[in-house]
Amino acid sequence: MPQNLSPIDKAKYAAAKRAVDYVEDGMKVGLGSGSTAAWMVKVLGEMVREEGLKIMGVATSARTSELARQVGIDVVPLDEARWLDLTIDGADEYDANLNLIKGGGGSLLQEKIVATASDQMIVIADAAKEVETLGAFPLPVEVIPFGWRTTQALIEETLVNLDVLGRSSSLRLNKDAPFVTDEGNHILDLSLRRIGNPRQLSLVLNQIPGVVENGLFLDICDVVVIGHADGSVETRDINQGRVEHSKIDLVESDNLFADIAD
Predict the structure, then answer these.
(1) Is the distance from CB of 183 to CB of 177 less than 8 angstroms?
(2) pTM over 0.85
(3) Which residue, 76, 115, 172, 210, could crosslink 151 as a Cys pair with Cβ 3.0–4.6 Å?
(4) How far is CA 7 from the centre of its chain?
């Protein structure tokens, strides 16, 4: 194992390595986006190449699709796969009820569509992503480019009547230009600090003209796999009410750790 991996990277790898235990031969698997999910895609690719694992992958972003193909995973569109056995993805925040904030990487729309088209959603994360109350991480909201400033004003006006601590928002940028999602939309990041009623907030946001989707994933996640830098892993299954502890061997071949980027 390369010596320059950070403790966070080791924790992400440990979680990813444990999460792929849920994948069985012949499954249709949603492949999440972001740096944590990239570890999972790499591990699955190694299983495909070296163990003969046969799966059909549905990617939640163009970047994940490219990585999956590079490591040998058969990638198909969701419309071809139709319904998935499970989706494995990361999260920016999760609480005790496994409600999530996602979208830090800008793929929340496709991630939510794929996750809700799955029998099971498994989230892989490091322990730092757990919060008592959602909202410390800015909530991404995907909006269409037309009239985005008007949509932003409507959102901020609506937040006045909701149970949140902050009400400011900002357009996500890519250098000096607006960030553009895979679906050609923009993202507004809402600095809420604390979300007292996530269900109410999600419902209200999605009723605002111009809003496509928000990054609150509520009652979607079934299992969270929490990795630690020493290779220990905690798995929480909210449906079974079960918590399991295991240990992952962090010694792996160098090629598995190549080309993983945030």
Answers:
(1) no
(2) yes
(3) 210
(4) 20
